[in-house]
Backbone:
């Protein structure tokens, strides 16, 4: 999240915390195998305040796509 898009550090950190928490709650959806993944989530939005449920939906969507690709 560039400072240009989200001006205040408090808001940038809140978004990062929400992304980390959404991943932590849903990482069990990843396949248990010998394959290792490197994931990076990039927040791209014109909204400075995004609710947790929206972020969580997108994290789940990305994990499901990754799971389908790994099969």
Residues:
């Amino acid at each position: 999240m560039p400072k240009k898009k989200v001006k205040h550090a408090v808001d940038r950190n809140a978004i990062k915390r929400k992304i980390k928490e959404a991943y932590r709650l849903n990482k069990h959806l990843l396949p248990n195998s010998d394959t290792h993944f490197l994931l990076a989530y990039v927040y791209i939005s014109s909204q400075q305040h995004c609710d947790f449920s929206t972020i969580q939906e997108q994290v789940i969507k990305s994990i499901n796509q990754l799971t389908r690709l790994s099969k």
Observations:
- The longest helix spans residues 52-70.
- Helices lie at 9-26, 52-70.
